[in-house]
From TrEMBL:
Pfam short name (any one): Sel1
Protein name: beta-lactamase
Key words of the record: Antibiotic resistance, Disulfide bond
Family annotation (SUPFAM superfamilies): HCP-like (SSF81901)
Superkingdom to which the source organism belongs: Bacteria
InterPro entries found in the cross-reference section: Sel1-like, Sel1_AlgK, TPR-like_helical_dom_sf
Gene Ontology BP term (one): response to antibiotic
Known EC number: 3.5.2.6
The reaction(s) this protein catalyses: a beta-lactam + H2O = a substituted beta-amino acid
Provenance organism: Arcobacter ellisii
Molecular-function GO term, any one: beta-lactamase activity
Uppermost EC category: hydrolase
Amino acid sequence: MFKQITYLAKFSLLLFLLNGCSNHNEAMKVLPNELSIADDCRNPNKQFEMDCYDLISYKNSFAQLRLGLYAQYKGNFQEALQRYNVAKEKGNFYANSLIADLYNNGFGVNKDEDKMIDLLEDVKNVDPVAAFKLSFYYLSKDKVKDALELLTYAAENGVKDAQNQLAILYSNGQYIEPDLEKSSYWNTQHEEGTENFINKIYGI
């Protein structure tokens, strides 16, 4: 009887994980187009840009994320959380990382490390920003191999902070054996003028 329950639990978990992957794959089919539309709003005049996002936010999840960030920077954490959740419900998994930040810092919500970790874990394989943020938790738990995998994934996808962190890790020998060749490589990647993935997604 116990074996049967264990099997059912594992099967249910597998279905949950597969469903999550399926949802992320479906989202990837529509998110690039949404991002392109949101980018048309970018403007040196910040208020004009926000007004543009506001006009399309009912159907554009990236507009919701960027309006949420603007609200967060102004200290309107409840509005930020609301907009992030709207984007998340529309299938934009890049919202997880922003919601995780609120729980990590206790902005507009009670601090909750478990909630933060769950949000990041859920999207670590599809969101390089979430992978980067989660890597620090893994390092704090001495899961160095897992942390390096996440940092490398983030760095390879243009997260500048991850590239810088890898350059440091490979040079100082704190967690791993020094590798000056890899350190130099990631330092070069960090200093190159290519667009930062964080800027690409969040428009900041």
